[in-house]
Amino acid sequence: MDFGKAFTFVFEDAAWLRKLGLASLVFLVSFILIIPGILFALGYPIAVGRNVLKGVKHPLPEVENLGEIFKDGFFAFLISLFYALPLFVVIFPFALIFGIFTDQGGDAASAVAGVAIILFSCLVFIASLALAFFLPGVLARYIQTGDFSSCFQIREIWRTIVQPNLAQILLIFLATIAAQLVAQLLVGFSVITFCGPFILLWPATVWTTAVQGHLYGQLAIAGGGLKEDLVSYA
User: pTM value?
Assistant: First the structure.
């Protein structure tokens, strides 16, 4: 996988300023409405990843087909919610135990609550780690097929995408964090200059999602490429 390309491909497009500017504007307007902002943030990297998978020379997408981006964002949200359910299953009983014993007070109750917090933290960490490794493979599968139902073929996703590319997925996780840090530094720089805090905030956010989408597209290629027998998008 070419991680450097994921960070620089945006600026190799002659129309990158227009594309990034329009996407930033759409993201800003969507963000004000909250839910559309979430859907755009989830759908935009899918559009980038799909272009990478298809071998588009300049994969930074136009924002003309907003319906497709929001649809992909909606499906990505449902997919993420489904795979995050184990986290809620872990959190609920320990939150209940903690609440009961905290209300009772006393040394014994405090000790039980403390043990519950430690166990809770360990389980949440393990579940979050599993989610961080598996979810990129699921989204790569969606990029491959455009088929919502294929994202729940857990064995197939594990066998073809996740298991053979565990090291790459770890690097994707680290590269995504690095992109977010770079974006935060840019926004922080804008705060202390004449630009003001909002000039770079939205372009930096869109760039971060584009980096993530490029990495997902590369993972989809590494996981077997375009699944033409399952593709449901145009």
Answer: 0.84
